[in-house]
Amino acid sequence: MFSRQADAPAPEQQENQQVSEDDRPAEFAPEPESSGFDKQQYSIDEPGSQWWVVSRERPLPDGYTPPSLGVPNVRLRLDSGAEQMKLSQTAIPAVEAMFADATSDGITLVFGSGYRSEALQAQFYNSYVASDGQEAADRYSARPGTSEHQTGLVFDVTSPSGQCHLEICFEDLPQGQWVAQNAHTHGFIIRYLEGKEDITGYQYEPWHLRYVGKELANELHENSQTMEEFFGL
Predict the structure, then answer these.
(1) Nearest-CA neighbor of 99 among 87, 111, 90, 89?
(2) Which residue of 29, 72, 201, 202 is 20 to 30 Å from 59, comparing CA positions?
(3) CA–CA separation, 17 vs 231, rounded Å?
(4) Helix (H), strand (E) at residue 198
(5) Which residues is 88 bridged to in the sheet?
(6) H or E stretch including 215?
């Protein structure tokens, strides 16, 4: 009878024999490496956090006002004393750096609208409802108390000519194209992405930029994700 015993390693050899990763059973295969992204770095629930997620389903505290607002040293659409020209101090350095980089590339950006109090948002929203009806207004305007603008971490970017101001055609302007390609490198995301209306609750807005910091902005940009998708909301 043919025997394989002669080919088998001695017991002590078996104990020391290394098994290659390719030969390991599936249950012992190494787990895939994590991207190393820490989703707990900032809170998505705490008011003022740069990852704070605000939406219709996640409203702001009543009458919320950001603790520290300032006016960025960039080209403004309105007088510097206007409420909408303010922004959280957390985001101002990033805005100024982004505008400077755009200028270096031959692109002039304009700070269109930043912080809005709950009262100001109510004025806007109510006027849209009066002109277009509530169903239509809800597709492009936040109800008072649910607007990201109230966080102070958001601003609408526009062009010097005012062409396509708050219109989807902004994406076709040199300013819109530059923003789409470069905003994330400064910590900003286009908050309401095209094709994600059912997730964010709003139409595509290529002008609406939300500050989240460079790390998260790069992560979302590379994966074409919304904050809701990334954080599983």
Answers:
(1) 111
(2) 72
(3) 44
(4) helix 197-200
(5) 69
(6) helix 214-223
**What is the secondary structure of 88-105 as a DSSP string?**
ETTTHHHHHHHHHHHHHT
What is the side-by-side order of every strand in the sheet holding 208-211?
110-113, 154-158, 208-211, 188-190
Task: Output phi, psi for 209, to 5 deg.
Answer: -110, 130
3 SS3 class: coil
Decide: residue 49, CB within 10 A, 0-12 exposed, 13-18 middle, 19+ buried. Answer: middle
Could you report the per-residue pLDDT of 178-228, keeping only the tens digit for each?
A: 999 999 999 999 999 999 999 999 999 999 999 999 999 999 999 999 999
How far apart (Å, rounded) are the C-alpha atoms in residues 208 and 210?
7
E strand residue ranges, the chain: 69-70, 87-88, 110-113, 154-158, 188-190, 208-211
Question: 27-77, pLDDT tens digit by residue?
Answer: 444 444 445 788 999 999 999 999 999 999 999 999 899 999 999 999 999
Kindly list the catalytic residues: 205
CA 208, 196, 40: angle at the middle one, nearest 5?
75
Domain assignments of the chain as residue spans, ordered by start: 38-231
CA distance 85 to 115: 7
Looking at domain 38-231, its CATH architecture is: 2-Layer Sandwich (3.30)
Tokens 């595509």 locate to 204
Answer yes or no: pTM beyond 0.85: no
User: Two tokens at 27?
Assistant: 């249950």
